[in-house]
Automatic annotation (TrEMBL):
InterPro entries: Homeodomain-like_sf, Myb_dom, Myb_TF_plants, SANT/Myb. The lineage of its organism: Eukaryota, Viridiplantae, Streptophyta, Embryophyta, Tracheophyta. It comes from Morus notabilis. The keyword Glycoprotein does not apply. One of its GO terms (molecular function) is DNA binding. Keywords: Developmental protein, DNA-binding, Nucleus, Repeat, Transcription, Transcription regulation. It is found in: Nucleus. Residues 340-366 are annotated as: Disordered. Its main location: nucleus. Residues 9-61, 62-112 form the Myb-like domain. GO terms for cellular component: nucleus. The keyword Lipid biosynthesis does not apply. This is Transcription factor. It comes from the Eukaryota.
Length: 389
DNA sequence: AAATGGAACAACCGCCACACT
DNA sequence: TAGTGTGGCGGTTGTTCCATT
């Protein structure tokens, strides 16, 4: 017996929502929470399917949604995260407070994609189109795809390794015999394959070249959302802590706003085994001045804010600690990137675009301190910190 | 003023993963 | 363990708005 489609009932309304419907849905959820979406329409007196209600709520009615024009900062973040994550809109949305994945997706398709294309950057690979056309186009494209895939694969392997590690640590908290494979070991192949250059544009018509060195965020497998490890302290786990400070406005950065927590009470029965960014224990009152979060990691190694380029990281954003969670892994990555220094977190400043006098591929891959630094800087820093704007 | 085409956005559809029985 | 229900995600489509001719 097959499963019946969500909206197969005759008589269910489709199409645009009316203000009355919105009101009904809003009122019901405010009073009862959404509970089971499937059951909601009947209870709320709506001739809609549950799925439609859920979409309407998550994409439009939720109070913690910011609508309207995307800021430059947001645009930049989207582009960079897209280069990193591909079309994982929900993951990208995690880093854009108050924006929905649908909105970001639409904005990408209608604005950013075209703009990148106009600038001669392939919106899929984030590489210059010339690059793809010259040499062997198909080969380059394949390499780019491979890059994305490799990043995914590396993230997936990392997540798996961590899960195994965590469960082992819990089960054998006192055992020292466990030797889960280090992420670096798991990732060697993927990391090597993923070592490719990605372009970061800015809207001043400078194309900023960067070389991705496959430093990775804490990505999960492609089928799940981008999350950060909010691991409980286990016996063997080293817990890195990053404390940043910022005067950034709430418009940028990964700041959790009031509404997000408020709505947790509305029947949200998600029991994700992982903790999303939104679940990080942000101290709301302290957001404006300081933020702290921890990331437990089961692999040895220490990291301070000065050991990576993210020395000017502010706020909460991509989990900087994780990038340097494993020195072995980091070393591997650094080696793969021709031992490029990461100490100068200048991000994607104009320096990186000054390649006019250069020649050949070396200039082509002109140091940008690396692509990830830019992402980190941009996502983590206030707009005023960004040389881009 | 009407027609047309493109842009922007809301909503739908199909698939998938996970939880539950 | 298989079957089923549910929610989430990404791709796509439909509709509306607006500028141009």
């Amino acid at each position: 017996m097959g499963r019946s489609p969500c909206c197969d009932k005759v008589g269910l309304k489709k199409g645009p929502w009316t203000p009355e419907e919105d009101q009904k849905l809003l009122a019901y959820i405010e009073e009862h929470g959404h509970g089971s979406w499937r059951a909601l329409p009947a209870k709320a007196g709506l001739q809609r399917c549950g799925k439609s209600c859920r979409l309407r709520w998550t994409n439009y009615l939720r109070p913690d949604i910011k609508r309207g024009k995307f800021s430059l900062q947001e645009e930049q973040t989207i582009i960079q995260l897209h280069a990193l994550l591909g079309n994982r809109w929900s993951a990208i949305a995690t880093h854009l407070p108050k924006r929905t994945d649908n909105e970001i997706k639409n904005y990408w398709n209608t604005h950013l994609k075209k703009r990148l294309a106009k600038m001669g950057i392939d919106p899929v690979t984030h590489k210059p189109k010339n690059d793809l056309l010259s040499n062997d186009g198909a080969q380059s494209k394949n390499a780019a795809n491979l890059s994305h895939m490799a990043q995914w694969e590396s993230a997936r392997l990392e997540a798996e390794a961590r899960l195994v590690r965590e469960s082992k640590l819990r089960n054998n908290s006192c055992s020292s015999h466990y030797s889960a494979p280090k992420p670096a070991e798991l990732l060697t192949t993927a990391a090597a394959a993923a070592n490719s250059n990605i372009i970061m544009p800015n809207w001043n018509n400078n194309v900023v070249w960067s070389k991705s060195t496959v430093v990775r965020g804490d990505l999960e497998s492609p089928t799940s959302t981008l999350t950060f490890s909010a691991e409980k302290r286990s016996n063997n786990a080293v817990v890195h802590e990053f404390v940043g400070s910022s005067s950034a406005s709430s418009e940028t950065g990964m700041i959790k706003e009031e509404g997000e927590q408020d709505w947790k009470g509305f029947g949200n029965n998600n029991n994700n085994s992982t903790t999303s960014l939104n679940d990080q224990h942000y101290d709301q009152e302290g957001l404006e001045n300081s933020l702290s979060f921890t990331s437990g990691l089961g692999v040895g190694g220490t990291w301070t804010s000065s050991t990576t380029s993210a020395n000017n990281a502010h706020d909460v954003g991509i989990d900087v600690n994780i990038i340097a969670e494993d020195q072995g892994f980091t070393s591997l990555l650094l080696n793969n990137s021709d031992d490029r220094s990461l100490s100068d977190g200048g991000g994607c400043d104009s320096d990186n675009g000054t390649r006019g006098s250069g020649s050949g591929s070396d200039q082509h891959y002109h140091d940008n301190e690396n692509y990830w630094n830019s992402i980190l800087n941009l996502v983590n820093s206030s707009p005023s910190d960004s040389p881009m704007f």
